[in-house]
Amino acid sequence: MGHDQPITIIAEVGINHNGDLNIAKRLIDVAVQSGCDAVKFQKRTPHLCVPMEQRHLMRDTPWGTMTYMEYRERLEFGHKEYSEIDSYCKEKGIQWFASCWDELSIEFIEFFNPPCYKIASATLTDDPLLKTLSATNRPLILSTGMSTLEEIRRAVSLLDRNKLLIAHSTSSYPCKSEELNLRVICSLMEEFGVPIGYSGHEIGLQATYAAVALGACFVERHITLDHDMWGSDQAASVAPNGFQRLVRDIRVLEKALGDGIKKVYDSELPVKARLRNGKCRKSTLPRPLI
């Protein structure tokens, strides 16, 4: 992931699979068909991540009314499911990784030898988690939603910059256009000097294209089969047709951005010869009287 390489496009499955392995595989299929480079999941250990005061709150779900703790457990994939995801991604030729929200989840995902980890915006201030992730010696993508610059600096100080990428993000779902603040991408480049990408939660594709134009070397968008499916992330996700357009247009855009070195292309030479073949002749017509 760098400016001398193609832009890495990540399809964030997250929890949009709703605990259904078949839906997860269909989302992987969409990512592959769209031309994505990777898919990302989220891994939590519910008894570590769900606050005590929320565990017994009742919630309406697609599986009926249950406690929030039961709901979170219903969403989580175990070793059997992730083994199938791992095999399926290898079969389809796409990489996968996860954002781990606790130390046990890191230990769990380590079994699958992921290419990198994502640090979710919600865990940016979790120093022990960041140190555990850094100890894996894998590349890390730090997402910066709902974080101050000082909090980001603190997180970066705990990580190896040689293996760090940072994603600009705003953690609202869906995010308003006026809160995307895409120029922060440039600010992060100047501040930290590491590869900067964009993790978007807006409706539509325009802002993601703008992020690429501003220099994002990777982009991540949530992927869904249908915006009307159950789940808090579905509305801010990109449906199959949209993801195909997103990847197609980013590939065109990265070619159009070029290398920044001004040059005369071979295709311009015939035009140059024709349009610059001698100066314009002086007019022989009399000048008009004033």
Report the average pLDDT across residues. 92
- What is the end-to-end distance? 65 Å
Spans of at least 5 consecutive residues whose pLDDT stays below 50 are none
Q: What is the general shape?
A: elongated
Q: What is the name of the CATH architecture? A: Alpha-Beta Barrel
Could you walk me through the main structural features you see in this protein, from its secondary elements to its overall organization?
The chain has a single domain, classed as Alpha-Beta Barrel (TIM Barrel). The chain is built from eleven helices and ten strands. Helix 1 packs parallel to helix 4 (79-92) and helix 1 (21-34) packs parallel to helix 10. The longest helix is centred in the C-terminal third of the chain and has 18 residues, at 240-257. By secondary structure, it is α/β, with parallel strands linked by helices. The radius of gyration is 24 Å and the shape is elongated.
Short structural summary:
This protein has 290 residues and is of the alpha/beta class. Helix content is 37%, strand content 17%. The model has no long low-confidence stretch (mean pLDDT 92).
Brief descriptors of the model:
alpha/beta, 8-stranded parallel beta barrel
Topology:
Elements: E1 8-14, H1 21-34, E2 38-43, H2 46-49, E3 58-61, E4 64-67, H3 68-75, H4 79-92, E5 95-100, H5 103-110, E6 117-119, H6 127-135, E7 140-143, H7 149-157, E8 164-168, H8 184-192, E9 196-200, H9 206-213, E10 218-222, H10 240-257, H11 269-275
Parallel strand pairs: 1-2, 1-10, 2-5, 5-6, 6-7, 7-8, 8-9, 9-10
Antiparallel strand pairs: 3-4
